[in-house]
Amino acid sequence: MKLFETSKTESGATRRMRWLYNFWPCIWCTGSRVEFIAADLKELHVSIKLNFRTRYRVGTVYGGSIYSSVDPYFMLMFMQILGKDYVVWDKAASVKFVRPIVDKVKCRFLISNEMIEEVKHNVAMRGEYTLELPLKYEDEKGLVYAVFSKTIYTADKVFYKKKQAAKERVIKAA
């Protein structure tokens, strides 16, 4: 179910992917739900609400659930879009809790063609690239509850393997 206005649609493959994500223990346990994955994998919608898995002692959604509910998606989306010739990792993240969540809120992950080209261009030039991506949880009225910054590391697979081998040589030499 789309949580944001979009002209994109799901495919059978992304519907299955959404279903699998929602039953993957590390996602199910956050108490969140993947509600929509575009057929081109460039848009994904997640929601979270107060329930038995997310409830904190003070009657709001637990901060750990809020953060973990947005953690994996940009990395997974870039991995699928860029393919096997690239290495993609979550490098860093930050979260600012703006107000307590007691109702359903939603988050939209968007990857544009320009972002993909920026990553590919910079990886081709330098072998690796780090991209910072903003996110936010908001309600139906647009009121913001949490703001995130996700830092994604991307590298050419050959470059990455050489970099890792060089690190291992330094460790063994020490």
Task: Describe the overall structure.
- The chain is α+β, with helices and mostly antiparallel strands.
- The chain is built from six helices and six strands; from the N terminus they run ααββααββαββα.
- It has helices at 12-23, 25-28, 63-68, 73-82, 113-126, 157-173; strands at 32-37, 43-48, 86-97, 105-110, 128-138, 144-156.
- It has a three-stranded antiparallel β-sheet. A three-stranded antiparallel β-sheet has the order 3-6-5.
- A hairpin with a 5-residue loop joins strand 5 and strand 6 (144-156).
- The chain is globular and about 55 Å long.
- It starts with 11 loop residues before the first helix and ends with a helix.
- The model has no long low-confidence stretch (mean pLDDT 94).
Give me the number of helical elements: 6
Widest sheet, order of strands: 1-2-4
Query: What would CATH call the homologous superfamily?
Result: Hotdog Thioesterase
Provide the residue-averaged pLDDT: 94
> β content, as a range?
25-35%
Number of strands: 6
Any chance you could write out the topology, listing elements then pairs?
Elements: H1 12-23, H2 25-28, E1 32-37, E2 43-48, H3 63-68, H4 73-82, E3 86-97, E4 105-110, H5 113-126, E5 128-138, E6 144-156, H6 157-173
Antiparallel strand pairs: 1-2, 2-4, 3-6, 5-6
